[in-house]
Structures
1.
Amino acid sequence: MASRELIRFARATSRTAAWSLSFYPQPILNLRRRSTAGTTPAFPFINVLGFISYLISTLAFYSSPMIRGQYAIRNPSSPKPTVRLNDVVFALHAVIMSTLGWSQFSKRIWGFSQGTQNVGRVIWALAVSCVLAIVLMSLFVASRPRAGYDPAGWAWIDVVYAVGYVKLLITLIKYMPQVYTNYKHKSTVGWSITQILLDLVGGVLSVVQLVIDSKLEGDWSGVTGNPVKFGLGNVSVAFDVVFMLQHYVLYRQARAGGKELEVGDEAVEGERRRLLDGIDADGQR
């Protein structure tokens, strides 16, 4: 039994470490380049809301007696949620690092040269809709006869599930603006591939941990009872593969050909070339 718990701990720690480390390469790259060109602010912006949602969800399943009690009643064959302390620590760290990443798009704070500054109406609409949906659902559950304390009906655990689904929805959407940005510029310059490789490791380990935990418990309701955690790992892996294809296959010439121009700095490069052409012309005269 002790060895089984040790194996679980090792897998959980490895996954958390990989995902936590994946937050550092992009801010470090931005700091080194003194620029956010090549990346989109939509990604860190919506990530903040997503990880706040994930933090609320994991905290509820980990520490709330009411939520854990309602979970046990609904999942009698596997009454213990699969959320662990490392999930809570990861979520808190993710909120902090996502906020830091978003702040780098503020020229007033960091003074970086900027690429795309527009978060986009779709992303803003998604964020507002998610918050509004959770507020309305909370009011609905509170208005029920037992005010959400009856797990047989609409209960507060359903609100927690909804908050978790916000994170899952955001994960489905958040990578798309960056995928499109890379496609538009036919380049991944400015977008850290290291964070993607670490995210891939974390995503794979997340799914493996959840599946093995459920198998050791002898019941697959550990997966069906925590679809957010299971879905997050799979969605992350899928987008990581897309980014790897863009970086190593589709747009590798942007790096291999020595094209290290920061995306968004084309105007600056064009002006530099015009000046050089003018100098050459003067020299020939």
2.
Amino acid sequence: MSVDEAAYSNYVVYGPEANCTLALCPAELSVYQYQPTLPGNICFLIFFAIAMIIHVVIGLKWRTWFFVICMFCGSVTEIIGYGGRIMLHYNPFSFTGFLIQISTVLYLGPEHARFTPKAYYWIFIPCDILSLVLQSIGGALSSTSDGGSNAAVNVSLAGLSFQVFTLLVFIALTFEYAWRWQRARKATGIKKPLSRTFKIFVVFLSAATTLILIRCIYRIDELSEGYSGPLIKNEGLFIGLEGV
């Protein structure tokens, strides 16, 4: 249904001075052009809260302090982000809710790896942090420019693109490691089976890496036309490719 924007010319629909609400303006005039679903966003918020508790308990049990800190901070930012989505449900024109959402989301033998295990930490963790920092800076720049800055979008895109690049390098090195390990295993005749726990770990690590890659590619496509592109207005894609 088309909306006569001229009829609402006296209202500010976007930015820190926005004065539109659902009682005054249709949701089609908001940045997303829809009213975010309440049940879906509450479900994701609860899911991340449960995941945070589980990871903290596991981390404390095994005394993996760095793991606890990372998982806690990651879960909290997701919870805050979906809190912003819930704010947008009640008022799709809430600039605060919009900014909250966009600013926050056994080893087999080291001799088979191209680099030492510590090198992977020192290479990929700083790269991931850098990509997240760039995305946060992009969100911050949006908040200081009424959300309409092309520079802010470009910085966010740079962070997402760098994250995709580092993920692809990580995936390539992982496949190479698996191939080198399998080749060495055949050469030495070692047939010791992998533990069930490690197999489960590999499955979930692979799934997490693949889903993060899909999410980043979607976000690049979503932001490729700034905050006015068609993908940013599709809540179904957001729930499927960002939330899930």
3.
Amino acid sequence: MPPTAVHNVRRIYKIASVPGDGIGPEVISAAITILEKLASADGGFEFRFQHLDWSSERYKRTGKYISDGGLEALDGFDGILFGAVGDPDVPDHVSLWSLRLAICQRLQQYANLRPIRILRGVSSPLRNLDHDSLDWLIIRENTEGEYAGQGGRTHVGTPWEVATEVAIFTRQGVERLMRFAFKCARKRPRKKITVVTKSNAQRNGLVLWDEVAGLVSKDFQDVKMDMMLVDAMTARMVLHPETIDTVVATNLHADILSDLAAALAGSIGIAPTSNIDPTMKNPSMFEPIHGSAWDIAGKGIANPIATFWTAAELVRWFGHHDAANKLMGCIEDVCEWGIRTKDIGGTSSTEEVTTAVCKEIEAAFNLFEMSE
């Protein structure tokens, strides 16, 4: 459970660091550098990191991603900073279910938050799109739905083999996520939410989803709700991004929509995500969404911006909103100066971007005078 921020008291947060695979260790190392610089500059909090070697390399050595008792040990942390999971030598469904989804489900991190906007200095592939026209919050159900893990295979390898993948929607699960989403929408200036499903074709679970959304909306009369089928939503995101604010969708649908959203905002390399337990009974987990990206791993060119933005969301979750806002301002300043990695039109390395953001943090907290 994250401690509540208390003014004038230096809070200490214990963070589990899970770098994982591919570029994960590179961007997590950079994010820790940024978080330590931010904490030192702010003076109101500090972080104590414990590194966990949960990775595909460990799996290949031991047959396990997570050490015995590891999931239970996470209860002793205030938060989790996660890099990426995925390895060419390990089937994706094995790595995902053995690590990331195992953490999310065990800790009841049922709300996945993905803020999306075009940062200063970053261009959208959409022509003539004003930066203010794309400022979204996508909220994804994170512990059930299409990724509930229910189903199986029989008669494997035979012509009559059968495989089932069962989507699970519980009224409790849908309602708790929907209420959280409406609360988030209420806090945003436009007070607007789009509920996304595919209830014309999926006539049981997603009809329940629609019905629960309608019932919950009655308790949020100040929030304007509209509903949309997921296929139509993809077109709306591209053609009319200015009409969107807060989006809530199922595990699968929001997973896909948020990757599209990141690309529309400039690059999947800039997008963060937070796996939240809104009850605060369990630690929440913060991660970039870009994956392990083995094609650039070890080259020093991974974009750390998504992990820096993720770090800002971690700081915000602990109640240090001013520090989080300053960090985001520093990130955007650096992008605007042209200190960017290749995927967003620059030539800078991971280390160069990290160093520039650190210097800007010092300037933002008036620790030294920036030279022109």
